[in-house]
Amino acid sequence: MPRSRLWSFGIAFLALLESCSAPQIRIERTCPPCIQLEPRAKLGLEMVVENAPGRQVTAEAVLRELDRHLRRGANPVVDPRVADVLVRACPTQWSYEGPIVLLPGQNGLWHLRVRIEVVHANSPNVPCIYSSTYWSKVHAPDEVQAMARAADLVSDRFVDDLRPSRVCNVVKMDDSDPRVETGIELCRCGQFDAAYSAFSDLAAKAPDSPSVLYNLAVLKESRGEYDEAEGLLLRAAKIEQKAIYYVALERVRAARRDAEALGKTP
Question: Which residues pair with 28 in a beta bridge?
Fold first, then answer.
């Protein structure tokens, strides 16, 4: 790959943002899903219908869309009686805003709210795995289309929470020590491997420079070397108490927790 490359574990992307006065690195990584399930856990769908006008029809629309979206995922969808995990959905709002009578070409605005709980099917007394309310607002020419679109959006948002996500952090580099200029310039040219080597060599020659230690820690973070990055940041913060060092410490620790949750070994 020319000039720069992603490291083999594929969880970081680096780019120096030249539009800012202070050098900055963008680091991307993968976060675990909001709802963490066993890879092959069997899912069952259950609807809870409140005693309110129109809720049965709304529940049926939500059930159809949830079933359709979940069947595209990694976890098999089965009869609730043989499921490992139950997804319980309860529509709590279906309302309309707009003219009483829609003229041709007009759209009304419909609101849908659905409370969804994810629970262990065989352990009713165990706290639920996850619980949240999802909502959508849609414009449509009639209620049938509106309900289908709204249920589709809610289901899509829920299923998104079952997937790993990407997070991007824009990280300020520390150019307060003139000796880091070469490493930062290498980053600016997209030569991140060379920058890593340059900062590593510099850290051996200038072990008491917090700027050098911090910048090396940032590149180690980008490579998933979280333990080493944390050690460098602790050394830098001991020498000089800069806010960016403590922010980086929290970010690195969070990234390590996420990597462990995903079962990755940097």
Answer: 168
The pLDDT confidence band at residue 266, using thresholds 50, 70 and 90, is very low
CA pair distance 245, 235, nearest whole angstrom: 10
pTM, two decimal places:
0.73
Question: What domains appear along the chain, each with residue ranges and CATH number?
Answer: 24-32+167-261 (1.25.40.10), 43-163 (3.40.50.10610)
Cβ neighbours of residue 97 under 8 Å, at least 6 residues apart?
108, 109, 110, 111
DSSP letters spanning 153-220: HHHHHHHHTTS-EEEEEEEE----SGGGHHHHHHHHTT-HHHHHHHHHHHHHH-TT-HHHHHHHHHHH
Calculate what percentage of the chain has a pLDDT beyond 90.
65
Q: Of all helices (H) and strands (E), which one includes residue 261? A: helix 243-261
Residue 7: predicted pLDDT: 39
